[in-house]
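User: Is it possible to get a 3D structure for a protein together with its bound compound? The compound here is biotin. I've pasted both below.
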Amino acid sequence: MSELQDNILAVLNDGAFHSGAKLGLALGVSRTAVWKQLKKLEAMGLPIESVKGTGYRLAQGFELLSAAHISAYLSQAGAPMPTQIEVFRSLESTNTYIRERAVKRAYGGSVVFAERQTAGRGRRGKEWFSPFGASIYMSILWDFEQGAQALEGLSLAVGVAVRRALLELGLANVSLKWPNDIYVDGKKLGGILLEMIGDPAGHCSVVIGVGINVSMPVVAGLDIAQPWTDLRSESLSPILRNELAARLIHQIFTLLADFETVGFAAYRDEWQSADAFDGLQCTVSTPRESATGVLMGVDDGGAVRLRLADGTIQRFIGGELSLRLTK
Ligand code: BTN
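Assistant: Yes, that's possible. Here is the predicted structure of the complex:
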C-alpha cells in the first residue's frame, strides 16, 4: 500500500465525509490523484462511500484495526496482555512475518495483525483470501518448554478458544470441524494454521495463525472454493473488528497460559459438544489414501476417530489430512 493511500485512510478513519478537494489539499496532491487512489482502495475491498457534492467516507461501522484500541479493550477486560501488538496495513502473511522475526529474536507472547495479506496461507498449501479490512488476519507467537509432545491437540484447543470469543459476541451457532475450521451452519467462517519453530524435542515456539471472515466482499468470496460465510451475515449486531481482535487475544492467551499443564484433555468435551460433523458419514483423506466411516469425535491427543464399516475405529492425526462429508 502506498504512502498516499495510507494517508488517505488515516484521514477517512474518523468516519466523517471528506471532499476530494480537501483531502487533496491536506495531503498536498490534486483531487484527481486522490480520486485515483480511492478507486484503488475500493478495488482492494475497502468499503468507501461517496456522495456527490459531499465527499467520501468509510462505510458506517467500519474501523481500521488499531493496536491502541485493541489494548484498551484488553485492559478494560483485565485480560492477559501480549508482550507486543503490531498492526500492519499490508503483509505477505502474518504467520510468515512473525516466523521470520522469531528466528532473529525473542518474540514470544507477541501478536501481529494485518488489514490484508498478499500471500495469506491456509492449511495444506492452500491460499487464504485476504482482502483489505474484510477479516481478522492475526498471528500469535508462543514459546513452549516441553517440546512437541505437550502440544498435541493445541490447534483444536485454539478452535475452542476462538469459538468462545465468538460466543461472547453473540454468535450462538458456531461449530468446529476437525482439525481446526470454524463453521456456522455448514459454512466456513474461519480457520487456524499452526506452525512450529525450533526443537520438537525441547524448547520450541508455535505460530498460531487465525483468520476470521468479518465482511467479505461478495466478489472476493467468489474465489473461495467451498461454502463460506462471514460475521456480517451471521451476527445480529455489527461486529467491531478491534473488539473481536481483543476477545480473540483474551481467549487464546488464557488458553496458552496453562495448555502445557492441562493439555487438550481439558478442552475435549467442549470441542466435542461443538463438533460440526459428529456422528456423520465422513471421508478422511491423506495425499495417498482415504478412509470412510462414521465420525466418533476426538481423543485426548486431538486425533479424530472414524468407525469403519467393519466396526474398527481408526485414528487420524493432523498434518496433511482433509475431512469431508461422504456424498
Ligand atoms: C485454513 O483454514 O486453511 C487455515 C487458515 C489460516 C489463515 C490465517 S490468516 C492469518 C494467518 N496468516 C496466514 O497466512 N494464515 C493464517
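The pocket of biotin is lined by residues 93-95, 117, 120-123, 126, 128, 137-139, 181, 191-193, 209-211 (CB under 6 Å). The radius of gyration is 21 Å.
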